[in-house]
Amino acid sequence: xxxxxxxxxxxxxxxxxxxxxKRFNLFRFWxxxxxxxxxxxxxxxxxxxxxxxxxxxxxxxxxxxxxLEIVASYSxxxxxxxxxxxxxxGIRVTNTPDVLTEDVADxxxxxxxxxxxxxxxxxxxxxxxxxxxxxxxxxTKFSGKTVGIIGxxxxxxxxxxxxxxxxxxxxxxxxxxxPDSKYKYYTNVIDLASNCNIxxxxxxxxxxxxxxxxxxxxxxxxxxxVLINIGRGPHVDEPELVSALVEGRLGGAGLDVYEHEPExxxxxxxxxxxxxxxxxxxxxxxxxxxMADLVIGNLEAHFLKKPLLTPVV
Length: 313
Ligand code: NAP
What we know:
- The protein has a seven-stranded parallel beta sheet with strand order 8-7-6-9-10-11-12. A five-stranded parallel beta sheet has the order 2-1-3-4-5, with helices on both faces.
- It is globular.
- With 313 residues, it is an alpha/beta fold.
- The chain contains eleven helices and twelve strands.
- The chain has helices at residues 14-23, 35-42, 59-63, 83-89, 101-116, 119-127, 154-164, 189-194, 215-221, 238-246, 285-303; strands at residues 5-8, 25-28, 46-51, 70-73, 92-94, 147-150, 170-173, 184-185, 198-201, 226-229, 252-255, 274-276.
- Helices cover 34% and strands 15% of the residues.
């Protein structure tokens, strides 16, 4: 039987590569300099793409693979996949929901505590020997602060649950109120930002949510407010965020994602009220393995003509 060709869009996980290689004819896209030539030569054997939050499948790539049947994303976010085009062409799409929820929610709480309690700055204080010269300055309490969440989905709900344990009143914004939720619903982001101390972005990146954090929202959050972004970089108008932080119009920020990652605005490097992480929301050994297993499970189910484990399209 002809080996099924699977194209891995970028480097993401040695474990996933190894497991794909055991089952399929794996093409590592990043190893080919001449992408167009490579696609021309192999278009007739590639039936699946494995993407992630960095590289997925746009219309051009989809069009260059006439035998493409499925795009399996090693991420829950689908912003790097042209979902509408996949639907139109009958190409199946899967992602990795649920298995990463806890890690991302844990990290959101970690970012809040790190920004408010200045944990990174405290660590530098001890290492540099500054402690010997005097005590560290006082910081800001987290327990009891009002937390606003944009996108009360799997991750947003898991963050809310954790923040509740810190006695934080929770409110949220999403396109519709969640009837089963006990949290306060706001019909727009400005009202949510005006009424919370900590604003967390946890919605998917779509045309609608691009720059959902703009100057107006930042000003509504204000000089004591803190922005946490564990969603996607383009949710935030980054130049506006940078100027608000530099000018002291926003109290602080904890960021896992950036508009042009891995590029991060250098003006942020000198700010102690900002914590910068390199997109590691789901980055634990346990979770990345579970995500890889889900990608494999979806591909196997598809090619064995069984129901997909986590279908999107
Ligand atoms: P989910 O369960 O689908 O939840 C998404 C929530 O966002 C839903 O409650 C949805 O509610 C809301 N939403 C959708 N469109 C919206 C809009 N236009 N305006 C406001 N709210 C909107 O997804 P999830 O599993 O929680 O994941 C959320 C996102 O987190 C992913 O898409 C991904 O981009 C990001 N993520 C980041 C990392 C990281 O490493 N930093 C890791 C994993 C995931 P309504 O439908 O009612 O609007």
